[in-house]
What we know:
This protein is α/β, with parallel strands linked by helices. The protein is 36% helix and 16% strand.
Amino acid sequence: MPTTPVLFVGHGSPMNVILDNAWTRTFNDLGAALPTPRAILAVSAHWYTRGTFVTAGGDPPTIHDFGNFPRQLFEFEYPARGSDEVARRVCELLGSVGATPRGDWGLDHGTWTVLHHMYPRADVPVLQLSIDQQRPPAEHLAIGRALAPLREEGVLILGSGNFTHNLRATMQLAQRGDTSLQEWALRFDADVAQAIEQRDHEFLARAPETALGRQNHPSLEHYLPLLYTVGAASEAEAPRFFNPGFDLGSISMRGVLFG
């Protein structure tokens, strides 16, 4: 079985599930270009927990984890199946971490808003892996490395977050009518992309702790999914960036594909 690619997407607003724009057209193109995986393991910014968990059960519900959006979004369903077999394999690979299956979560918008465009028929089993907020960034890279064998088993590892994500600052600027590109977001986005190209895992692990990192990520849930993707990639795989650009002037939509 060929090695399955590993992917990070900037998912942005939940509205992207119903919009036709540059970001969503790229998601469609990715789904058409990539080999169809046996299953998808998504690491979404929106399952941020104490501990490491993986969804279990045959029918993960579509979670509408947001407010103040059109009714159409709350009615949207992404009826992908789960996979207890893959969940057991994830727990096996993460034995030292102590991953635990859970049946009380499903697919949140960091997962389904993207997969609706990539796999609109929802015919690929999907699981989610939670992000343990108690672990430092270097350990999330290590978890990504531990998951890498899944790529030889037909499983697509999908990180979903954003290279830059200071939503409070973004909304404050938007309320003032300022959606111009913000220098602090441009700089951090470029620094992280360069570190990925140079395989500078040390920088990627400490970047959120810098002043610029804290400005872009007051909390880390949108940054950490990237580390799972980078960790699961091999040193021989050159990163391919897509969707460069910013929503509302400061939320990077950049994605990266390995393999």
